[in-house]
What we know:
The complex is a heterodimer of chains A (about 80) and B (about 140).
Chain A: E1 11-13, H1 15-21, H2 26-33, H3 37-44, H4 52-61, H5 66-69, E2 70-72
Antiparallel strand pairs in A: 1-2
Helix pairs in contact in A: 2-3
Chain B: H1 8-33, H2 38-43, H3 46-58, H4 63-68, H5 75-106, H6 111-132
Amino acid sequence: MVSCQASFTAMQNDVRRLREEKALSQGDLARDLGVSRQTVNAIETGRYLPSLPLAFAIGRYFGKRVEEVFRDDESR
Amino acid sequence: MTTNRVSPRRRLALAAAVTAWVIGGILIAIEYSQGAPLPSAIGGVVILVAYGAVLLIFQTRSETVRALAGDPVDERWGRIHEQSLVGAANVATVVALLGFGYCEATGRDNWQFALMAVVLGLSYMAGLVWHRGRM
């Protein structure tokens, strides 16, 4: 059954791992995505959930699908 | 040929600063016309003038100042800006209600607080109707 509480679900992501694999700094990624370095840091640490367009942009940047970068509790 | 066009970001900060300065100027004119000495009238608006100057000087260096100027740097700052507005509206609502109650209890004129509460309530309801149809 599909949950209707998506906005309250804890999310994890692999942004930090993917960024480090490409030997990029947070500033590099931020510049390429058009956001601030603090926003990249907040996404990596899970303090900020990006919008769908930004999540897609992150996925596209690393050549991954969104669900390969971001996961909720139920997808594990 | 070089052009000297003002960037949209700079224009926003300039608009916010000019608004602060115009409000300051109007306040000086009102106080002065009511008989206040000019230095005293000017002193009362120093904060507004300084606020405008801070927006202009620091908006290219500080993300916080860019948000204050109405130009959040990215979507996270946009959300921070919105949540701060919600917090400010909540505080204003509490102040309006407490002020109204205090004035009512002490027999003072309370129309300013009543007007503030009505404006807050009506603008909130108008916002619900407006945004409901758009998301």
